[in-house]
Every structure is written in C-alpha cells, then in structure tokens.
Write a structure and sequence with these properties.
The structure holds two protein chains of two kinds. By secondary structure, chain A is mainly alpha-helical. Chain A contains 13 helices and two strands, in the order αααββαααααααααα. Chain A has a two-stranded antiparallel sheet with strand order 1-2. The chains are: A mainly alpha, B alpha/beta. The structure holds adenosine-5'-diphosphate, iron/sulfur cluster and magnesium ion.
Chain lengths: 362, 326
C-alpha cells in the first residue's frame, strides 16, 4: 500500500543518526559549566516559612491584628498583678465593706473611698467602674477575657487534634475506610450543636459534680460540656478540610516517589503530607478560635456559660442587660472586647491564608 | 491449565502476562474493569535498556507502576533477579528498583531541601553511618548527576526543569539500584535539555550498570537509548524488536504509523516516506474492540482481526509482532 519502511538505515550513519534532528549527537555532552552558571544566578535561598512571614508582615490588617492581640494578651497577663482587686472581691475600704461602691461609673470613687482619700489613703482607680455587687469591673472584664481566650484556644486545640487525626487517616487510606469515616462525619455534621451542649451540660451536672478549686471546678459543668461538645462535634469541619487537602497532596508524584523508596505510611504522612497542608490547617485553627469564643459568649449570654462568680465576656454582657439604659458602659466594655478579639483573629487568619496559601485566596 | 512460568536467570527483570485492571464505578454498586494493562510480557537483562513507546493513555505508566508493585496487579507475574515480586518480597526489593518521574514539578516535595529529597531513600533504608556520611553520599550523588554541591540546602522550586529532573535522578540512584523505571523522564523538558538528560542516563548506565525501562511516547527519544523497543497499544504489546530492526523494518501497522510520524532531517527522505495519518480516536479502554485492539484504525483489518486477538509471534531474530495480516 505504498508505505515505505526504509527511508534511512542506522548503519550508514553510525555516529549521527538521521532521526536525531532533535537529539543531535554532538549536543550530547554534559553542560555542567553552563548549568552551574545558570544555577549561580538563582535567587537567594528562601524558605517557605520566611517567605510567608515576609508576606504576612506586608499586610497592614494582619500586622494590626497581631499588635491588638499582643496588647490584649499582655494586658490580661499583667493587669491582675497591677490592679489590687480580684474578680470575686467586693470592694473594701480600710478593711470595711464599702456598700456605696456599687454601679460606679468609670474613674469615679464611692463616698467611703473619697473620705479615705481625703485622709491621705490611696485608692486604685476603677478604670471601668464597678458592678452591681460592688466589684471592680475592669478586673472582671480582664478575667472574662482570660476565660474567653482560654476557652477559644483550648476548643481550637481539641478541634485541631481530633480533626487532623481523623481527617488524615480518612484521606490517606481512602477507599472503604474513607467512605465509612466520611459518612460518620456527615451524621455528626447534622446534629444540632446548641441542643447537644444544653443536653450535655444538664446530664453532666448530674453525673460529675466537679469539686475542689481546680480550674475546671471553677469553670463549671457548662464549660466542660462546651469542651466536650467541641471535641465531639466541631472537629468534623476540620476533619473534612484535612481530608480534602490530603487527597490533593496524595496525587503528587513525590508521595509515589517516597513509596518507591520503601517509605512507610507514617513517614509519608509526617514528611510529605502534613508539611504540605499544615499551613491550611493552622489558618483554619486560627479562624476556629474566634468562633469558639463567640459560641462561649453566646452560651454565657443565654445562661449556659461559666459558673459564677467566674466571669466570661458573654456572662458579663448578659449581666449588663438588666441595667442597659442606666449603665450602658457595662455592656459596652465586654462587647468591645469580644469584637476586638474575634475581629483580630479573623483578620489574622485571613492574613495568614493570603501569606501562606495564595491558592486559597478568593 | 496454563503452563507454569519459570524465570530465566539471564534476565534481571521479567514480566509475564502482567495485567492491571482498574475498577471504574458505573453506578452505586456496579463497577467495570478498565483494562489499563492486559497481558504484557517482557524481559530486561542487567545493564540493558528496554524502551516502551505508545500513545498517551495506552498504559505505559501503569506498566511501570505495576512492575514496581505500586499497584496490586490483577494478574501475571513479575520476577526480579529470579525472585518473584509480591506483596511480601517487595519490601526487600525496593532498594533495587527505583523510578524517575515525568513531571519535574510534582515529583519533588516543595517543602524539602535538595539534600533531604535525595537523602530520603538513604533515610528510609538507613544507608549511612553518621550525619557526615549521609552528607558525603548526597554530595556524591549530586556530583554524579551534574548538580552544584553548593545548592544542597536549597528548595526544589528554585531550580529549572532540567535541574529538577537531575534531582529526581539523584534520588533514584541513592540506594544504588540495579533497575530504574524512567517514566517519560524527559518528556516534560526542552529538546536541548532532553539531549543532556538522555546522555546522562546513558553515562550513568555505563558507570553503574543499571538497567532501565525507558518509557516515552516519542520513538526518537527511545531509539537513542534503548537496545530493544516494545510498542504498546491499548494495554497490549503489539511489537517488540531490537531498536535498529524496529526502525528499519517495522511490521505492525501501528508501529509503521508511529514511525511515519517521526520528523525527518532530510526533506527528500521525508517526501519519500509518506505519513500515515491514523484515522479515528483511540478507543476507550473501557470499551475495548473485539479481537485485535487496533482494528478500528487499521487499514489492513479483516474479519479475522475482528474475531480473534492476534498473539505475539516471532518473525525472526526475536522480532515479535501481534498481527494477523502482516
Ligand atoms: N489509578 C487509576 N485508576 C483508574 N484508571 C487509571 C488509573 N491509572 C491509569 N488509568 C487509566 O489507564 C489507562 C492507561 O493509563 P496510563 O498507564 O497512565 O497511560 P500512559 O502512561 O501510557 O499515558 C488510561 O485510560 C487511564 O485513564
Ligand atoms: S491484526 Fe488485523 S487489525 Fe490488528 S493490526 Fe493486524 S491487520 Fe490490523
Ligand atoms: Mg504516562
């Protein structure tokens, strides 16, 4: 059918094959010098982390939130050492209970305090006034912030740990394991979280009666059930995220290369998969903190929060509702705090995402 | 009963009737096998190169990965150095069988330095006595593939495609393997860089005596480096012969069309040799034609081709062809 099959013969041209128009034999030598030169003009070595930090520091909103967060954390650490009041202490002047020191406006003093000061005594100013029981409001807001932040960070940690473990197992092993694990996630996803928290705290109140003076005992069963519910329910979002990341990263040939080298699953997860999705995980953990703080504030606001007299930002705001027209400042201070913290964490999370994972940008 | 396959000690790698079917979901509970590789056999001698060519999607990558048991094969046997490769024995053989990948970007972890990428197989098999020994071995490997040792602490994204491929080759060489699957190892590179890298593969083979399964979709690339060439079509081998014999005397209609697509340096030669343009698309491996897989695009196809699958038969001197009419 006219197909010529002998247009060339390799024997005639032992050195330069006629087929090697593209692969010219004379070119077949190591171009190491050239390559080295090429390599020498490469940019300064930059690690992924340093690169991301540089981008983060160029983002004014992110830098602003970092400053705000550092300021808040410094304040809640230092203030209790400077301010001579405690969050549960009713103001006394010279050892006597000061009944007139209730509902003071910011930077004002009660009659007893004024008398005492007139006699030459020293009284630490009530920066945010006092509450209806005569407790210094500033220190209560500080402790409330402490509690709220702790709750946020711990809840995010719980979510992070469970989510990473569950998501990475599901994503890495895939197949049937993945299918079953993800159906469980779907079921959990559909449970109403607030209802679960309310039910659990009722049940827990019956079962465990935290005693003693530990932090958990002071926080109360509501907080414990909040943590438990976070541990039981809220990790599913994180697990889904981790799984999705791992499914994408698993496609890369470097994972296959590690398997060709004989690496075990644990090695591959540790060395290849986690380092490549850790930034996404940390970013969404940063975004988890304000959401936990918000949930806690909301629960405290509806009366399911920390146990009195321990304050949280939510319970402070809740207590301030009664005198909202006369003592508006009592609602404003904790609300501003909640807003500042959630905003700062959200902006920081966004900044981190932009700096470390430009692909995720929308 | 099928006769039992006995490995031949003169070969380093032997694949016998290798099959790899992927289950493809067709519904909630149903799946259909996608026959990516369907009964492929070949042998590779120590220090020798077998070229594997075929259009994209014909199952070349699957052959390479099944050979290294990255997939659990549906059927057939693989022997390495006389030992059967199975789920149990593969752990001990990983050191000897390595792979170089097509994509120089996705094959290197962007969060790792060159040193750690090349050092990974050393770490996995604990092939060093001290930190210094590890570093010396890595620097030696970098030198072997023509990389500047000063760049050991850099990240892969700072290198060009050709350099990245050298990093991947150094990693494959780290455990001192006797066999490397090069899966389109140069396809993603510029033509001039391809030449350098292929040349390096040849040098390394001379120095280290390593055998290659050299996969490419381009006959030119394979011809230069391979002693023997195997041509694949839709998961099957259609022709195998010595490299020169295949180029000068292609028998299978598919091989002929592949060769006719090769660009010629001499316009007169190019004119003499008519291009055979293949009509139609490659059939889906999910919907394999009956009989000869090539019959939907073959101009010599007859009724016999429709009825029966042609077996590979020797046409003299080990030139094997699977075709009824040629
Ligand atoms: N993991 C997999 N699952 C399902 N199908 C696959 C998988 N890998 C490859 N295939 C299919 O097998 C066929 C051969 O693919 P491949 O071996 O990658 O071909 P080549 O390397 O020659 O381009 C293709 O049709 C491809 O879609
Ligand atoms: S067997 Fe028939 S269809 Fe297949 S290549 Fe030969 S002639 Fe063509
Ligand atoms: Mg391929």
């Amino acid at each position: 059918m006219g197909i010529s099959t002998e247009p060339y013969s390799p024997d005639k041209t032992p050195k330069k094959h006629p087929l090697s128009l593209q692969l010219d034999v004379s070119k077949f030598e190591k171009a190491t010098d050239e390559e080295k030169k090429q390599a020498d003009v490469m940019s300064e070595s930059t690690s992924f982390f340093r690169d991301g930090m540089r981008r983060l520091m160029k983002n004014p909103l992110a830098v602003f939130s970092i400053i705000v967060l550092i300021a808040i954390i410094a304040t809640i650490l230092i203030a209790p050492r400077v301010v001579p009041y405690s969050y549960s202490e009713i103001i006394t002047v010279n050892g006597r209970r000061d009944k007139s020191a209730t509902n003071l406006a910011p930077f004002t003093y009660s009659k007893m305090e004024q008398q005492y000061m007139a006699q030459g005594g020293k009284v630490f100013p009530h920066i945010m006034g006092t509450d209806e029981l005569g407790r210094d409001y500033f220190i209560r807001v500080i402790y409330g912030t402490r509690i709220s932040l702790t709750v946020g960070v711990f809840a995010a940690l719980i979510v992070l740990i469970i989510g990473i473990l569950y998501g990475s197992i599901s994503g890495y092993f895939g197949g049937k394991v993945d299918l079953i694990m993800m159906r469980i996630v779907d079921v959990i996803y559909s449970l109403p979280d607030l209802l679960m928290i309310i039910l659990l705290s009722v049940v827990l109140n019956e079962i465990i009666k935290p005693t003693g003076n530990g932090l958990l005992a002071r926080l109360g069963t509501n907080m414990i059930s909040l943590f438990i519910v976070f541990g039981l329910l809220y990790w599913v979002g994180m697990a889904r995220l981790v799984r999705g990341q791992i499914l994408t990263i698993k496609q890369n040939d470097y994972v296959l290369a590690a398997r060709v080298s004989g690496a075990k699953s644990s090695h591959i997860i540790r060395k290849h998969i986690l380092p490549n999705c850790i930034s996404v995980i940390i970013i969404s953990a940063a975004l988890q903190i304000p959401s936990a703080i918000f949930t806690e504030s909301f629960l405290s606001f509806i009366g399911l929060g920390v146990k009195a007299p321990m304050p949280s930002l939510g319970s402070l705001a809740s207590a301030a509702r009664s005198g909202i027209t006369t003592y508006t400042y009592k609602l404003i201070f904790p609300s501003i705090m909640i807003a500042l913290i959630t905003l700062a964490f959200n902006l920081l999370g966004d900044g981190l995402r932009d700096a470390f994972d430009p692909k995720l940008r929308r | 009963m099928e006769e039992k396959f006995t490995p031949d000690s003169q070969y380093l790698v032997q694949a016998h009737d290798m099959k790899m079917y992927f289950p493809i979901k067709t519904g909630w509970f149903h799946s259909k096998p996608l026959k990516a590789v369907d009964g492929v056999s070949f042998d590779i001698r120590p220090g020798e190169t077998l070229g594997l060519v075929g259009e994209s999607g014909c199952g070349k990558t699957t052959v390479g990965r099944t050979l290294l048991r990255l997939y659990n094969p549906t059927g057939g046997e693989v022997y390495f150095d006389g030992k059967k490769v199975d789920a149990k024995s593969i752990g001990g053989l990983r050191k000897d069988m390595q792979m170089v990948f097509q994509d120089p970007y996705s094959s290197l972890n962007p969060r790792m330095t060159v040193e750690d990428i090349i050092g990974e197989p050393l770490d996995v098999h604990k092939l060093y006595t001290s930190r210094q020994d590890r570093r010396d071995k890595i620097l030696h490997l970098m030198e072997l593939v023509g990389l500047n040792a000063e760049h050991a602490t850099r990240y892969a994204h700072e290198f060009s495609g050709g350099q990245r491929q050298r990093i991947g080759i150094a990693r494959a060489l780290a455990t001192n393997p006797r066999f490397i699957v090069c899966d389109e190892a140069v396809s993603a590179l510029d033509v001039s860089i391809q030449a350098q890298v292929i040349n390096m593969f040849e040098d390394l083979q001379k120095q280290l005596g390593v055998a290659y399964l050299f996969i490419a979709h381009d006959l030119l690339v394979v011809h230069h480096i391979s002693k023997r060439i195997a041509v694949m079509y839709l998961g099957r081998m259609v022709e195998t012969a010595d490299s020169n014999e295949l180029n000068s005397n292609p028998i299978h209609p598919y091989t002929q069309s592949l060769l006719s697509a090769v660009p010629y340096p001499d316009p007169k030669q190019a004119k003499e040799r008519k291009r055979i343009i293949l009509e139609g698309d490659v059939p889906s491996p999910l919907n394999m034609p009956s009989g000869c897989p090539f019959r939907t695009r073959c101009r010599y196809a007859t009724d016999e081709c429709k009825a029966k699958m042609p077996p590979l038969t020797d046409r003299g001197g080990g030139h094997m062809v699977a075709c009824w009419n040629k």
